[in-house]
Amino acid sequence: MAQAAGRAGFDAQGTVQSLKAAPWVKHSRYISHVEEMPSLGDVNKGLFALNLKKSGLSGVLVPMVDDIAQLLAEFAPLLRKNGLSFLTVHPEQIDMCDLTALQQWQGKLRVPNTLYCHGESMLKAAESIGFPVIFKSFRDGFIRFENQQNLAQWLESQSAKDYPFHFQQRVQQYVAGETTQLASVVLLFGAEGKPIRGFTARRIRVTQTLYGPFGETLAAQAEWLPDLYEAAVELMSAIGWVGFAEVECKQDINGTWWLIEINPRLSGWSCLAEADGAGFLQAYHHLCTEDKPLQEACLQRSVTQYSRMVASSRHQPDTVNLSLHTLKKMYQHPNDFLYGAWDKEDGKANRAWLSFMLKRYLKKN
Predict the structure, then answer these.
(1) Structural contact between residues 46 and 52, judged by C-beta atoms closer than 8 angstroms
(2) Longest C-alpha distance within the chain, in Å?
(3) Residue 202: enclosing H or E segment and its boundaries?
(4) How far is C-alpha 120 from the geometric centre of its chain's CA atoms?
(5) Hey, which residues does 201 pair with through a beta bridge?
(6) Alpha-carbon torsion 329, 335, 336, 340, what sign?
(7) Which domains can be identified in the chain, with CATH numbers?
(8) Most-buried pick from 82, 210, 223, 353 (CB within 10 A)?
(9) pLDDT in tens, 338-354
């Protein structure tokens, strides 16, 4: 996204937990300043806000992860006082993004039955929701069960021995369908709560996690889905949203769109939207720095594909993604493809990234 901002003509600055784990950051031509500091997952919110204040960073702040979006909502006065501009909502509105808070929603988007339970109550919770169900207790541990017998047998099996039953379990009605039935709506709302920019795209491929294809998006296709866009706008408008949001959805065999998750920030693969002409970064910068309002516009061209080279040390790519064939394809640079963390004008960052990935490939193999 820093590269996308650079291509849009903006100076990019930011924080990183470890330059060793992300060596391309210090080599990028688009990034003028970077601060190493503990991630929000390693310190409390107050200390992170204080570290951000001391970093000397200023300008327009774009929330890229859920925790940062929550931080902006809770510490908005402090951060704005120290030179950061951003759009945010009240913390209670972020809480409304949890599907358990939307169980009574009667709009165009269907909301699957969802609840939280302790590990020892998984079978009872699944029976309450109705099969098939999917459990979402940790990042790479989503697991699906088709019926009561499958779940009961798994609970008694050896494969369940290392499962983190002590975690809070989110149990959700599973919406059947292929990966290509997954789609996202990326939205930007102005301070008055009106939609300013929108973008829709379908997933093509996701990573294999411990229990199935429920991981990070590896490939996506820009595709304008007007019905889904209108349904997402209806929902987020009812919440009273301001700023960025990603609404993840899935279409069932009857063509009905179901809500899977709401991310209260800019999507990690929104560089696909930028490459396709959606204009999120320019519109967001305008809203944060100018008094003149913008009109709603969906500017995507629906011609761009995206292969996400999951480059962060936090996201472990699957075997298909982390291959010499894929790395070699990076050099070909087809005009209609945008590769994550790969910009033909950002040569030093590319080489640092490629070296990092080759070392990982050799270690993995």
Answers:
(1) no
(2) 62
(3) strand 195-206
(4) 30
(5) 184, 222
(6) positive
(7) 2-87 (no CATH), 113-173 (3.30.1490.20), 179-308 (3.30.470.20)
(8) 353
(9) 444 467 788 888 788 77
